[in-house]
Hints:
Radius of gyration: 23 Å
CATH topology of the largest domain: Rossmann fold
Strand content: 5-15%
Number of helices: 16
Shape: elongated
CATH class of the largest domain: Alpha Beta
Structural class: alpha/beta
CATH architecture of the largest domain: 3-Layer(aba) Sandwich
Amino acid sequence: MPKMLWTADYSPEWDKRFQEVVEVKRAGFNVHNRANDYFDEDELIEQLKGCDIFFNAYDTVTKRVLENSPDLKLILSVRDGPEEGTDLKACKELGIPVLNSAGRCTVSVAEFTFNLIMNMARPVFELTSTMRRDGWTKANQQSLRNIVTEKSTELYGKTLGIVGLGRNGRQVAKFAQAFKMDVIAYDPFQNEEAMAKEGIELVELNELMSRSDYISVLARVTPENHNLIDFEQFDLMKPTAAFVNTGRAALVNADALKDALKNNKIRMAAVDVFDGEGLPLTDSYYDIPAEKLILTNHTAGFSRERIDHQYEIGLSNLVKFLDGTEIQNNCTPGVESTDAYKSHGGKLFGINKKVQV
């Protein structure tokens, strides 16, 4: 039976299910469940000795780790973007497929994103904090009502602009359409006719910025799209518009966003992603009033159900690989055609059939 190093989130239920397929070795974050409890290169090389498979979450897999882990044949990743922590080029060169749990966060991210949009349309945070502080009396009834009448807007008939129409972006579009919003999007990799069938109008980025009442950023980061949304783009927005980034910090120039909020170029924003994991109190984001800016700690993708999504997909990836039926959710396309694959991933692919024979 193949041996699997498992450092991703622990689940007793999924532990039992994986042990029906492979021998499981738990280590790192999987055992301690502490943030940033990840292995360095030497530690990971040591942990991978004798392991055929690595089910990873956030440990960094470098070329050096791969070159010094001769037993490793397959990497499973819970991440939608495993390239953020794994050298996919080196994996392909060394014949080690990387299969990811694609779509594990789709529902979580989309719901969280649309929840932010709804809270920017309706000032629930401000209303409830004011009411908890002052109560609800005859003396303040009008001021409480004014919060709603002055700041509350309906989503019905408004335009949502989505930057990035991957799984998350398209799910947000469905939520918006359920609220009878018009949906436009910028994504140079999508087909105009196909998106039109889903009720989404593809437009150029600057047109999206100027037409939208709400903007949701959900694109993947590439070398070409850093600071995709900059001062020029914020200057195009309506002063009544609101902006949400639950995608990646690198897509948006934070200084440009802060400038747009401080100078009332836009009405409001919500940000879940920042440069680095953290936002110290010295950051100038905190100078912007809470009524204009919602801040959350990179948590859009989390939910109780996410762990089940990621392991349901991951186990399916693993079983199909071991059965030799499919290389599913392959982040290293073409790896099976490399010479190195024969002595690495190829040794594991279809091993269940080989054992039965």
